[in-house]
Amino acid sequence: MPKSSNSWLRVLIFLGAGIAVALQVGKVPPAIPAIQNELNISLTEIGWIMGIFSLIAASSAALIGLLADRAGQLRFVLCGMFLTASASLLGSFAPSSGMLIVSRLVEGLGFLMTVAAVPSLIAGAMSDERQKTAFALWGLYMPVGSFLMMIVAGPILEGFGWRPVWWIAYIVILIVMVPVWWAGKPQANQETIPKQKLSLRESFSVMQRSGPLTASAIFGLYAGLYMILTGFLPLILTQNDGFSLPMAASFGAAVVLFNAFGNAFSGWLHSKGFASSTLIIWAALGIGISGSIVFLTDTPVSLRIAAALFYGAIGGLIPSSLFASVMLIAPNKSSFATVNGMLAQGSALGQLTGPPLVAALVSHFTSWTVTIPLVLLVSFACLLGGWHLRRFEGYTNPS
After folding, report:
1. 55-59, 174-178, 244-248, 271-275, range with greatest mean pLDDT
2. pTM for the full predicted model
3. What is the Cα Rg of the chain in Å?
4. Which domains, from first to last, does the chain contain?
5. Could you tell me if 140 and 263 are in contact, meaning their C-beta atoms sit under 8 angstroms apart?
6. No. of helices (H) and no. of strands (E), the chain
7. What contacts 105, CB < 8 A, 6 or more positions away?
8. In whole angstroms, how far apart are CA 61 and each of 6, 124, 183, 310, 318?
9. How confident is the prediction for the chain on average, in pLDDT?
């Protein structure tokens, strides 16, 4: 097998690791009604089951990335995947909400360990000139993993309940661990991550640099807006446009799918030489316009759906471009996992704070239109962040 083909195969395997752990994100929303009925739990407990992932990431993702840089990426990925799989199996036997919440907490920790360290393995698999495209494709892991589980979970939930969904997530992760172990082993003539480990002082210095901080902030703003739109779109379609719940949910899943297409398209654009900052700026403009249309009360339903799908697609340029920019904003390859941990933490903070903020605004003003100024403000901030990242374009980091 040619070396280039072998490299891309390994990148696809590492992407598979991210997709496998992202199943944990997509399995919960469709299973909520079944869990609530079987365990007889409150709305508050459901909120903890859904939100504990973001809470863990928001409080510790950057630290997890720092530890990955020091412990070794392959070891960290495999440990994270095993931890996630084991917690999913534990959660499948939960007799109450308490055990399920604890299992979700451990799943979140394993998920973070995996996604913080995988990009460093991708960097080791590819030559420097192809790393940007490979990093951009890494952005596919979340929308693809969550979408696949949303699709698979439906028939299983209807026929067998929610626990088999947790078993499937457990089995898939264990299966994917085998090729990940193979792909992560040192191979002849590969690009490797430097063996020297950053000191704690150097790692904390990386976390204070303007590039990683700006990228983390952009990811947080984007992720918060993404969660607001995908989370509340089914509710808007049912309350404002008269859709049935299954039909509204299907359009929510379609937005996630279009987001995956956007991430893939971004990878192609990066391979053609487009700058990450340029794609972020254009995407920021796109999500500002389309997001405003979605939340405008008098928007015709066909235009609302089209705007939501466009939002998913154009928004997909942002996470992929941020991952592609890691090789520029990180001071060296030894700090890739630290920077990716910062991106994960920014994303989690946005997911954690965005939906409650919008829920409070809409409850107070009794109109979805009040969300539009927030959408425009967030998109403008992302645009400014993308403009700031232009200063790093064309700079090649020392290996």
Report:
1. 174-178
2. 0.79
3. 20
4. 1-128+139-183 (1.20.1250.20), 206-394 (1.20.1250.20)
5. yes
6. 17, 0
7. 52, 56, 87
8. 31, 22, 24, 30, 19
9. 84
